[in-house]
Specification:
The N and C termini lie far apart (36 Å). By secondary structure, the chain is α+β, with helices and mostly antiparallel strands. The chain has helices spanning 73-79, 90-96; strands at 20-25, 47-52, 55-59, 65-67. Bound molecules: zinc ion.
Length: 110
């Protein structure tokens, strides 16, 4: 069994570089009326939303990520304002955003 149930890391080849947009979402997400829970660590909030073409992925602080079919581009655009950063590759971006698993289990006091 793998953590990855999608082909995010093996996208179909295409001429243009894939544009990945990312936006942090510190609060809970409940597109179906109940909160999304990370199956990796049980977290219920503090997500990174990723938009790849028309698909929306949710990534947890523990680095678990999955495609969330209940989230649409419209949902994403609602949270997304404008590009703040650009990274050369996905791994660099995840490290910069602290979503590479190093912060797994971190408790944020507000
Ligand atoms: Zn998690």
């Amino acid at each position: 069994m793998t953590d990855y149930d999608h082909d995010f890391y093996n996208p179909t080849p295409e001429p243009a570089r894939a544009v990945i947009r990312a936006v942090p979402h510190p609060a809970e997400l409940n597109p179906r009326g109940f909160s999304i829970t990370c199956t990796g660590c049980g977290a219920r909030r503090d997500w990174l939303l990723l938009a790849v073409h028309d698909q929306i992925f949710v990534r947890c602080r523990c680095a678990h990520e999955w495609r969330e079919p209940d989230l649409t581009r419209a949902d994403f655009d609602e949270h997304y304002t404008e590009p703040e950063h650009e990274w050369d590759d996905f791994d660099t971006a995840m490290r910069a955003l602290a979503f590479d698993g190093m912060m797994a289990g971190a408790i944020w006091n507000e």
